[in-house]
């Protein structure tokens, strides 16, 4: 069985097609690496790349892509709506098949150190790779963004894990870390009132006292005249998608508002959906080994 | 992408461990064949084997297993609760990956002809491979069982598709055919009254005016003091599992009986469960390509 890891690097370039192509070129036609998706956003001026492959091949391809990004992006000129702190803003590593979280953490440390050495770049470890509690959350690491990072790094609490204790002049800083697969899951409400979506989002998310592995915010879908609770399910193995939709449904009753649909943005691991089927069907004693495809994926034939 | 076919041959031996091992031996350590399951039932005196692999390798292994079964099983001596007509009772072929139903039908014809020639065995094509409507249903082909098959085959309507127009003296006859993956799905009811399960089964199944691709019967779970509607979902791509559970729930209301759980017996294709998750979560615009594992299975990396 071949080990598979996913990587979703975020680069601070979402407008220049040629630069996007050069940055993603190390992910194309590379042995043991498969490029699944490239999403560019001109407003955010940011690109989110999804690739999977063997841990060693993914690490090598990501380092080559970082080299491209660092040579092409000047953060002093960068403007975009999305918070960012570096040309290579964040490099999450996600165990997919036959890879323990500890192995993904170890890989993130090797990748972080090699990037720091090769590009003279400060690297912060975050999420499961974080070396202190206050550095776990990406938003905390990125707070102040590129412009205030030099000032922030004077604080002994914000020394990088690898690389120089000063911001790279054009590439800023980068966060690298292992984390569970994240599912982008949105639940649509039968109202146009954004205040309702905001209020429900606050109740359902972790920081508001809601679900442990759920981030949420209200979003208006203007073209449809409805609103949605837009969520990142940060560990579907512990906080299931059905828990989020049922909690939203319960909370929405307070406003006499129905749940009218939902959507998954991007990729979702099979188990995140099968857990929901098992809940709603009331499946007893179900084992993922009963899923035919698990046998097709294990390289057993 | 490697073509994958599933085969679930049923052999009329479920008691003698040595014979079971000899019959299944061609499925072990065979290139491009993977043995997933062997279920023996002493009361039925029958064995159900599940294997997957490349079409050519599966065909070759099944023919070798048939040779073992035909040399070891004497239907004149066979006793068991399950209806049966041959030493190799039925050989279903199920397309799994990158195999069209038409290809599975073609394979069933090649397998049926080779078995007829090699073992001097009458072979009936059934299900999607059937050469006439009245031969589609396995129960219709098997009606009369081994003991009355000689009489039945005097009827021009019941000439075999391949092989001699007379029953094999010890091995009887065999049905071979392509069909969609079948899901064994049982829904448990909060009552001990078997009449309720029977009545609901009759309403939910195709022959009773219910769901097109659903066979159902009532079963008593004596150790738990409850009953269940035991179903074969014969084409989950057209009749979904959630339709069955919701129809049973609605019908059970008539008796004031709750649905208390469900179970899947054996293997289930990922899509059969993901379709249920999509229904209950209300997923809009969902595409199976969003499931991460579909990319792991396509030999893309």
Task: Lay out the secondary structure.
Two copies of one chain form a homodimer.
Chain A: E1 4-7, E2 10-11, H1 17-24, E3 33-41, E4 46-53, H2 55-72, E5 88-97, H3 101-119, E6 123-125, H4 138-142, H5 145-152, E7 174-178, E8 183-189, H6 194-204, E9 214-221, E10 226-233, H7 241-253, E11 259-265, H8 270-281, H9 292-297
Parallel strand pairs in A: 5-7, 6-7
Antiparallel strand pairs in A: 1-4, 1-5, 2-4, 2-5, 3-4, 8-10, 8-11, 9-10
Helix pairs in contact in A: 1-2, 2-3, 6-7
Please give a structural write-up.
The structure is a homodimer of 301-residue chains. Chain A is an alpha+beta fold and 301 residues long. Chain A has 2 domains: 4-178, Formiminotransferase-cyclodeaminase, Chain B, domain 1 (2-Layer Sandwich); 183-268, Formiminotransferase, C-terminal subdomain (Alpha-Beta Plaits, 2-Layer Sandwich), CATH 3.30.70. Helices cover 33% and strands 24% of the residues of chain A. Chain A contains 9 helices and 11 strands. In chain A, the strands form 2 sheets. In chain A, strands 1, 2, 3, 4, 5, 6 and 7 form a 7-stranded mixed sheet that branches. In chain A, strands 9-10-8-11 form a 4-stranded antiparallel sheet, with helices on one face. In chain A, strand 3 and strand 4 (46-53) form a beta hairpin. Chain A is globular and about 55 Å long. Chain A starts with a strand and ends with a helix. The mean pLDDT of chain A is 95. The interface between A and B is large, with 49 and 49 residues.
